[in-house]
Design brief:
The protein is about 35% helix and about 20% strand. By secondary structure, it is of the alpha+beta class. It has three domains: about 5-40 and about 220-295 and about 405-450, FAD/NAD(P)-binding domain; about 100-205, protoporphyrinogen ix oxidase, domain 3, CATH 1.10.3110.10; about 295-405, Alpha-Beta Complex (Polyamine Oxidase, Chain A, domain 2). The model has no long low-confidence stretch (mean pLDDT about 95). The chain has a seven-stranded mixed beta sheet with strand order 8-7-18-19-20-17-21. It has a five-stranded parallel beta sheet with strand order 12-2-1-16-22, covered by helices on one side. A hairpin with a 6-residue loop joins β13 and β14. α3 packs across α5 (about 155-170) and α11 (about 285-290) runs antiparallel to α15 (about 410-420). Bound molecules: flavin-adenine dinucleotide. Flavin-adenine dinucleotide binds next to α1, β17, β21 and α17.
Length: about 450
């Protein structure tokens, strides 16, 4: 029997997983990737002679998908967890980020780190959680600020939730959908009658063990391992430009900017939503309309390498987060050499730090030239971290339109968009199903399975 042909458009982690899964069940798979390398936001680059992640650097290990994909890529031997734990929130000084929280929502109001961070008024308000009003059986979504701020008070939002949402989504609590930010939260609130109780019940349900994981060499080293073990064909420097029904034979034609059009029984579209909008325009206009309505935030990462002796007051932990209320440019920091033993071991005499800049609706800093951006960030953090002298090397990585902003009812819109897709086409990726790497992998898997029911020529 001839194998079914599947084309996967987009070589980010979602597309790689979709391609791997389709190949595993016997499809003949070609993955087309517009850039010169697969991985999308999982990518590494040389800084001061060290090969470092300059995109995603850590995946949630309490969901199974990331660790499973590392195993499928035959990299289990390289699996690592952070060498230290804990993080700070930078207000007037650094406060420990309470450990008992879920995306900043306290799961234990007796956490000893809460009072310093929230202050007396904030604690009073938290203790008097207003019973939530999220409607009996109706599944209406709310913004995170409406749900959390309305019940637990504004300080929890401003000092806890905003820094975490800024770190993960570059987004704001008054815009992001509660259902997307913490899947299952609204249902749990309805069940438990409490936002704190709901967050606690979701947290207790997640797997035991370390929260985060990576691989030696960084997550940027994972995509090529997935390809090596995956059994599918990759065309880099190849942008899909149009998707049309194949005349007569059923299936699809994928036109590209650099090769003969590809013929496929099935197509998985695993690109950012704005790129999907172009591809879907003629075959699924309603899905294209949903895709083009999704906004993205731009961010930049500043990676700096110092001589270890030039960073004199690095606090314990993996880094810190900065709430928008402080007005600072710096949004988050990762103490890379402290967080990842393999980075420390590459250069024990150096200190690698990484800072992130840019929030949705607040692109300050992103228009600065690289050298100016590095200076602006270091000027802000120099005193806090005890930095003396200049970095040995610095690299700015700009991630334009990289983080989708999930407004209220995003999930419902996506479900509708998927219903209008013709058979044999599926959507995967962060823009549809969530930005975290495990969510993207799950999205790729589901897309592979969804097109899996299509028969050749059908
Ligand atoms: C700076 C940054 C740091 C992050 N850190 C973390 C982290 O530590 N942990 C975590 O879990 N998540 C992190 N995320 C989020 C996570 O990395 C992403 O949500 C996820 O990697 C997206 O994967 P994807 O496959 O959906 O899309 P992408 O990675 O965007 O991949 C899409 C691919 O499609 C290609 N493409 C686009 N158009 C076309 C076309 N027409 N034809 C062919 N190819 C095309 C692109 O070149 C790209 O390679 C981070 C995101 C950013 C921006």
């Amino acid at each position: 029997m001839t194998a079914l042909t599947t084309v996967v458009v987009g070589g980010g982690i979602s597309g790689l997983e979709a391609a791997r899964r389709c190949a595993h069940r016997g499809d003949s798979v070609t993955l087309v990737e517009a850039s010169d390398v697969v991985g999308g936001k999982l990518v590494s680059q040389d800084v001061d002679g060290l090969r470092l992640d300059v995109g995603a650097e850590s995946l949630l290990a309490r969901r199974p998908e990331g660790v499973e994909l590392i195993a499928a890529a035959e990299r289990t031997g390289d699996l690592v967890h952070p060498a230290t734990s804990g993080a700070g929130v930078w207000l007037d000084r650094l406060y420990p980020l309470p450990r008992q929280q879920l995306l900043g929502i306290p799961t234990d109001i007796d956490d000893p780190d809460l009072p310093a961070l929230l202050g007396a008024d904030g604690m009073d308000r938290l203790r008097q959680e207003t019973p939530p009003d999220v409607g009996g059986d109706s599944l209406g979504d709310l913004t995170v600020a409406e749900l959390v701020g309305g019940r637990l008070g504004p300080d929890v939002v401003d000092r806890l939730v905003e820094p975490l949402l800024g770190g993960v989504y570059a987004g704001r609590a008054d815009q992001i959908s509660a259902e997307m930010a913490v899947p299952g939260l609204l249902d749990a609130v309805r069940r438990t009658g409490s936002v704190v109780g709901a967050a606690a019940s979701l947290r207790s349900r997640s797997a035991e063990g370390p929260v985060f994981a990576s691989v030696v060499g960084g997550l940027g080293s994972l995509p090529s391992s997935i390809v090596d073990a995956g059994g599918f064909h990759v065309l880099t420097n190849t942008m899909a430009v149009e998707l049309t029904p194949r005349v007569g034979a059923g299936g699809w034609t994928v036109a590209t900017d650099n090769a003969e059009p590809l013929q496929a029984d099935r197509v998985v579209v695993a690109v950012p939503a704005f790129a999907a909008a172009t591809l879907l325009g003629s075959v699924a206009p309603r899905a294209a309309a949903v895709a083009s309505g999704l906004q993205y935030a731009s961010v930049a990462l500043v990676t700096v390498v110092f001589d270890a002796g030039d960073v004199t007051a690095l606090p314990a932990g993996t880094g810190f987060l900065v709430p928008p209320m402080t007005g600072r440019l710096t949004k988050a920091a990762t103490f890379v050499s402290r967080k990842w033993r393999w980075v420390h071991d590459l250069a024990p005499d150096r200190e690698v730090l990484r800072f992130s800049v840019g929030r949705h609706g607040d692109p300050r800093g992103l228009d600065l030239a690289d050298a100016e951006l590095v200076s602006a960030v270091l000027d802000e953090v120099r005193e806090l971290l005890g930095i003396v002298g200049d970095p040995r090397a610095a690299l700015v990585t700009r991630w334009e339109r990289s983080l989708p902003q999930f407004n209220v009812e995003h999930r419902a819109r996506v479900a509708l968009a998927r219903e209008t897709l013709p058979a044999g086409i599926a959507l995967a990726g962060a823009g549809w199903d969530g930005v975290g790497i495990p969510a993207c992998i799950a999205s790729g898997r589901e897309a592979a399975d969804r097109v899996g029911s299509v028969i050749a020529g059908g």
